[in-house]
Amino acid sequence: MGANIQSAGSRRLNKIRQATMTDVARRAGVSQTTVSFVLNGIDAGLPERTRQRVMDAARELNYSPNDAARRLASQRSRTLGLAFYDISIVTDYRQAAATVMRAVFKAAEKSGHRLSVYTTHERHETGEDVGTYFAVPVRSREVDGMIVWDSYVEAERLRASFDEPLPIVTLDRQVADVPCVVPDYDEGVRSVVNSLVADGRRRFCLITHAAKVYRDVHFCAAFESAAREAGIPESNLTYTQEGPADPPTKPTVELIIDDLLQQPKRPEAILCAYDRSALAALIHLRSLGVSVPDDIAVVGCSGLPICADDYYQISTLDLRHDLMGSHAVELVLRMVRGEDLRGSKVVVTPEYVRRETA
């Protein structure tokens, strides 16, 4: 009886046995090498009809490649990593992180890769920042390369990882010779300032974050340059820095707005280096009865989906995370294939999206 049960079980197992590459080759009438070329996306000069025959055979057999075996054989995981700051700590960071994640995911998927997400920072229950080493997944071959979107991770860690060498690309940040994809803040901010000046606005307030990161520094420098080119006197420019409410190292956007409204000559336009700052400014101005944009125009920077919400309709400098993600994936894959891209920088031109707040 036992032997019969085992035999029946064996027959059932045989019936559900997964198709192999040999099965696909036999069904398509080609060699296993040809099947490997087609299923791995390798351009071997095969006729289109041969490629299609292999794809049809794989689909008919419901063939699923053994990812673990492919990774061991090729030393490739067909997976890319995206590392950014812990969104459970910085709540306002979440929508921006989701925007970047979607852009990188689409670019990775288009190139036939999966995407794994990692955090660059973790905290103990005591609040101590312990910092996750983002390069570990690359070393363990969980991923082929890593895209890092974090303004706070130490520059030395990024540089040391790249020098090992590891395929790493930074987004919206430039560190030594590490390949990067950054927005052209000069061109983008100039388009915003010129548009506001054309509407007759001459007094401006700039709100950046308390941290002096790549975006803050370059956004501020671009604003100074654009205002100077437009003939705006320095006396008409106000520079402010917001900070987190806890701990209160710098004033919140609401406190900045309250102070601006007390000035004899209140600004006619508020430019924010972050969309979330523009959102906070808009909500507070409305609560105080200030008309936006009739009294004060408000413009953010990033291009978050919430800016297009019918209730807000916030003008923003869209950094084009879709293009940034696509370029970052391309750079990583070029390094995975062995190219030396040390010092490479791709500059993406932002798009000024004018809505009801300006």
Keywords for this structure?
single chain; 358 residues; alpha/beta; 434 Repressor (Amino-terminal Domain); Rossmann fold; 3 domains; six-stranded parallel β-sheet; six-stranded mixed β-sheet; 13 helices; 12 strands; 16% strand
Describe this structure in words.
It is a single chain. The protein is 41% helix and 16% strand. The protein is of the alpha/beta class and 358 residues long. It has three domains: 2-65, lambda repressor-like DNA-binding domains (434 Repressor (Amino-terminal Domain), Orthogonal Bundle), CATH 1.10.260; 79-183 and 322-348, 3-Layer(aba) Sandwich (Rossmann fold), CATH 3.40.50; 185-319, Rossmann fold (3-Layer(aba) Sandwich). The chain has a six-stranded parallel sheet, with helices on both faces. Helix 8 (155-162) links the parallel strand 3 and strand 4 (168-171). Helix 2 packs across helix 3 (32-39), helix 2 crosses helix 4 and helix 9 crosses helix 10. It is elongated, with a radius of gyration of 26 Å.
CATH topology of the largest domain: Rossmann fold
Largest sheet: 6 strands, parallel
CATH architecture title of the largest domain: 3-Layer(aba) Sandwich
Order of helices and strands: HHHHHEHEHEHEEHEHEHEHEEHEE
3D shape: elongated
Structural class: alpha/beta
β-strand percent reads 15-25%
What count of domains describes the coordinates?
3
CATH C-level category of the largest domain: Alpha Beta
User: Span from first to last CA?
Assistant: 82 Å
Helix fraction, binned, reads 40-55%
**CATH homology superfamily of the largest domain:** Response regulator
Total beta strand runs: 12
Helical segment count:
13
Spatial order of strands in the largest sheet: 2-1-3-4-5-11
Q: Unreliable segments (pLDDT under 50, ≥5 consecutive)?
A: 1-15, 67-74
Mean pLDDT: 84
C-alpha-based Rg, rounded: 26 Å
